[in-house]
Amino acid sequence: MRLLTVNVVEKLIPGPKETGFTAIDKRPQLGRIRVRPLGLEGDRVCDTANHGGPDLALYAYADEDAKWWAQELGRDIPTGLFGENLRTEGLDVNGALLGEVWRIGAEVEVMVRAPRIPCITFQHRMQLPRWVKRFHQAGRPGAYLKVLREGTIGAGDPIEIVSRPDHEVTVAHMFGEQDPGKLRAMLDSGVDLMGEIRENAQRIAARGE
């Protein structure tokens, strides 16, 4: 398991929201990039009401899923096209458990916090009809990460799963099926969850009680 590329915003481009511009245009960087609590050094967030913050500091997407999309769409999916900061190889990003901790390189540690929820900016970026629905139905959202330990990362760095919590709710599960029993077990496990995920899990788990 390794990091293929580290991507930061190339330039701000016009977007569909009232913020005017979007930082979704990410490109791979040479050398080592510093990881801070709010993300990569040199990166930007325009729509701070809906993106960014400590729980959504980094967005990781698996190269295996990008290749799947390339075949589905009949086009290349270059690294950074989906706005991901990290393109990984050999790591089941969608199969990661919420609360799972990864070490990237020798220094950086991150925690899996949530699946990526597609928005109108992503739709605008891809310029494909019904892209948001199509992306959701595919069940390959990628994961948002919280930075637990700062440091530097670079292309080729190994990725190690440091710890996994005692529940069964993966990134893909939270994005799709959302079984009430599994969500209740996750809540009861005591795993550290971001507020929105906890609230959603509590609401869905209550339906099964």
TrEMBL record:
Name of the featured protein: MOSC domain-containing protein YiiM
One Pfam family, short name: MOSC
Transmembrane spans: none
Source lineage: Bacteria, Bacillati, Actinomycetota, Actinomycetes, Propionibacteriales
Residue ranges constituting the MOSC domain according to the UniProt record: 27-162
A single MF term (Gene Ontology): molybdenum ion binding
Top-rank taxon: Bacteria
InterPro entries, sorted: Benzoxazolinone_Detox_Enz (IPR052353), MoCF_Sase_C (IPR005302), Pyrv_Knase-like_insert_dom_sf (IPR011037)
